[in-house]
């Protein structure tokens, strides 16, 4: 049984009951600076071990692994501290805020011998698992092009979100285009388009309303196109990815709650597109956590806590990510994505923004497979 500690209990509370029910984990401890909220969640889920100080948590020899759900600026520091304290690390996206921090985490992972997994939801969503199945069974044929977007209105979000450069939070669209064929981004070129309000733009010296990037993959004939927006763009929330093969292609629906489309080559033109229902992939999980692909947060007594419930969300990915992280530790193998892959995906966004500031200049990514 692996003793898990969850750090950050906003979004992090989503994962508590999954770890409580997973057959190979003990939901050992929780950590948050706000004592009132810490105790509220600890009481609700029956977790005795509670920390307000992260360093004290890491000093606890009973903790085997930490799952970090803290604000983005804390990800790199907390991941590095945990790896150097001999703990396995799962961390919500993105891995870090600089390429140098990404490299440092990769090195710390190698030096410590511990596992690191960036918890990228999209590559464990039912849509991604569906397309992955189409690819692995040969139905797509030869993949020719990949495309993804993540558009969201972040007005009203607190702290570090206002004015954030769109590509600094790009892993939800970079992950699926790189992850489907396990490709490594080699270089990127990105353009900024439009302008956001001056009071937002001056926070990060980032004026762009939309950033759109082309990614060239290493040792592959493939490239991908991704685009992001966070402010001052009229668009319903959308995380999407699309894959074009020579036999079949998958296109994400334009509006939430509609169906994606499969295009099949060489049919009569009106028959080429077909709307499809994406199945759930709970069957890939241990039975005791299968429910969490379609349901939100509940405690051990089946009492619904409205303050914690954020829905099955993220394409049912949460229990799949937990199971992958835990299985990698138990089987002593790299999780997907591992530290090098996480660094590559995160750095695509960081360097794409840099490219946009330089008018689309091509920027090469460092080699993280050290």
Task: Describe the protein.
This protein has 370 residues and is an alpha/beta fold. The protein has two domains: 2-120, 3-Layer(aba) Sandwich (Rossmann fold); 122-323 and 348-369, 2-Layer Sandwich (Dihydrodipicolinate Reductase, domain 2), CATH 3.30.360. Helix content is 29%, strand content 22%. The chain has ten helices and 15 strands. It has a nine-stranded mixed sheet with strand order 14-13-12-11-7-10-9-8-15, covered by helices on one side. Strand 13 (261-264) and strand 14 (273-275) form a beta hairpin. It starts with a strand and ends in a 6-residue tail after the last strand.
List keywords for this structure.
alpha/beta; Rossmann fold; 9-stranded mixed beta sheet; 370 residues; 29% helix; 15 strands; single chain
